[in-house]
Amino acid sequence: MGARAGIVVTGTEVLTGRVTDRNGPWLAEQLRRRGLDVGQVVVVGDRPDDLRSALAYLAATNDLVLTSGGLGPTADDLTAEVVGDFCGRPSAVDEALAGRITAIVERLMSRRGWRVDPAATEAGTRKQARVPHGAVVLEPVGTAPGLVVPPAEGDGPPVVVLPGPPSELQAMWPAALEAAPVRAVLDRAVELRQDTLRLWGTPESELAATLRRVEDQLAGLEITTCLRDGELEIVTRYAPDAAAAYAHLVDAVRGDYAATLFSEGPDVDTLVAGALEERSLTVATAESCTGGQLVARLIDRPGASAWVPGGVVSYANSAKEQLLGVSAETLATVGAVSPEVARQLADGARARFGADVGIGVTGIAGPGGGSPDKPVGTVHLCAVGPDGVVTRSLVVPGDRAAFRKRTVTVGMHLLRALLLGGPPA
Amino acid sequence: MGARAGIVVTGTEVLTGRVTDRNGPWLAEQLRRRGLDVGQVVVVGDRPDDLRSALAYLAATNDLVLTSGGLGPTADDLTAEVVGDFCGRPSAVDEALAGRITAIVERLMSRRGWRVDPAATEAGTRKQARVPHGAVVLEPVGTAPGLVVPPAEGDGPPVVVLPGPPSELQAMWPAALEAAPVRAVLDRAVELRQDTLRLWGTPESELAATLRRVEDQLAGLEITTCLRDGELEIVTRYAPDAAAAYAHLVDAVRGDYAATLFSEGPDVDTLVAGALEERSLTVATAESCTGGQLVARLIDRPGASAWVPGGVVSYANSAKEQLLGVSAETLATVGAVSPEVARQLADGARARFGADVGIGVTGIAGPGGGSPDKPVGTVHLCAVGPDGVVTRSLVVPGDRAAFRKRTVTVGMHLLRALLLGGPPA
């Protein structure tokens, strides 16, 4: 492999899980596209010693180090100062930069109509305008400037200092790529491809046997497999000169898993959205146990309003009857958690929203509500479209959150099987 | 601070963001409750060298090291072997353990009705049954056993090796706590409290001024502040002997931010759920731009079926009319994105689900759909209940994902203000 990069994500709120980091994965993907391989992401709290030792750890084995977070106005935001010290470059206030930050803060405050304490704002602004000697300043997108700090001694990697809010970090990224110390690293990088094969219904241990069988044809490939929510992903990274080895892998997987290979690239969400768009079809949902997560996942994609008129979340049986036309008799005889009600939910969603496709989900997410007949995790799904009907009944293991996530993925595969065929849902 | 722990999360799928890590934060919280402070979480891909250097980095400054992931049957699952080597303890197959894993795998396969290749299963099983000499085995919850590996030389921290799937890791955790090398570390730990104050509508820079003013009364507190989705969280960790300092902090925040302090502990979701439960009220939703994320967030809590009969996601105007009774005339005159429609959505949700409280959300998530009058990010919310009506109109900055997340949080504060008063939504 060519050049490598390491990432430090700062923030006690990330370390403790109150905030989920989106920056580490985003930066890793941006860097990979430019041929820089990311081997480690370190999350540290807002403590100078921990940040310093994380920088030392990453600087030892990487050509570039990036940080996100810790650029705010409060005392626990200490990244710029610590990075400056680490690189042997003492910091001082950049007066012109302080003036630009002040103007930004005043505009923000007045737009939000928040009362402002000028003294508080000034102390914070001057803190944010401190720049290590010789560093490249990346202009603020929010209020905090970013930095590219080259090592004073010339023998370590440059450190790119970026803000924590993902929208600010992403907007600042093009400027970081243009900074001379970063360009020098990128010039040493070589292309690194990443391709994905996706199976639905194959256990990881079987795939392991296939990989062992063709092992000697796979030189130059870095293959990782991941089973989640019933999907088995095979992600391969390789330099362009290993393209023939990747073709061998694809052949082997096609040969052994024709019945479960559902994609040689796009994920199930992209396949479903593409099929709906191409055929100008719409889909409406009727959910109980997944509580809106299925419609939310469909609507996650920009432009979804063209193919999702909406959905109903019907926890109460009365809502199932009145909003979706589920029969009171069916509810009384076989119960809400049944294949019959899943079908009526799908039909109801289709009819009420005037959609081409309807999907219904009914089950028991737990922790309460189970019975010997219908244990927690029992779920029935049904998708109805112009070409037919696809159903699935199963018992999903795991807790409430795992149940909902897995069930929503099964729902996406129901739509995929209905619209595109391939492995059964 | 007393004893410290460091966590390594393995898996290229986590490093690249295809899977979001839930284990690092969960373990950090479990350890904090037992007085172990977690300073770093390192995410590494499935490469032995990177795992080895991460272990060395964490072992240098911690009393306990934990790993999650990399215990599966495929070749890229290499944690147990690398940890054994790192601790100076070579691994060998534990035949009795191999037998127990085989029985588990056969049961799983037959339950799922998957076709099984016995040779593949056996190779994977024997790999999973390899145990470093002298390590404590934690019985499998899925198919993979965990391990507690003491250092061979006696001068490093013990390493706890746990599986990647969160439900397996969590189920195995009590056994890990019982292992003798872990108990020895826990015996050295002292209680570490964590308390949170929550503000709605105060900028971080103002809070910084308050903290600076009372700085000399806050000795022994580790304070971190975090602004997200408009909420400002002040999280403080402290040993029991700093309780008086924490009381000073609470007094200062109460004094300066009486108008925006909405909680001295529970988050807004807990406050809303508690108010609904206590007063035996129900709430129904009608969303457009948030696409089901508001109802999904309400239903995230176990037991939510008692207070959420359901919700409608109505992207299409026809769905707003037919499912929620929004007037065609209002839609034609002021448009779907308007305070009037937000009100009619709230009324419609309340009426159609027979709920005590209805909440309506209508806006433009983008990237398309904006206009000079109604730019992307425009959103109107309305909550109607037995005691009155609360509304909010705003323009939310950021991309589609940020818009939806922030808008859902505003929705939760609308319900909080309606049910409990306090800072306006």
TrEMBL record, chains A, B:
Superkingdom of the organism of origin: Bacteria
Q: Which residues form the MoaB/Mog domain?
A: 6-184
Name the Gene3D superfamilies for this protein: CinA-like, MoaB/Mog-like domain
SMART domains linked: MoCF_biosynth
Any one Pfam family here would be CinA
Family, per entry = Belongs to the CinA family.
Q: What is this protein called?
A: CinA-like protein
Organism (species): Klenkia marina
Taxonomic classification? Bacteria, Bacillati, Actinomycetota, Actinomycetes, Geodermatophilales
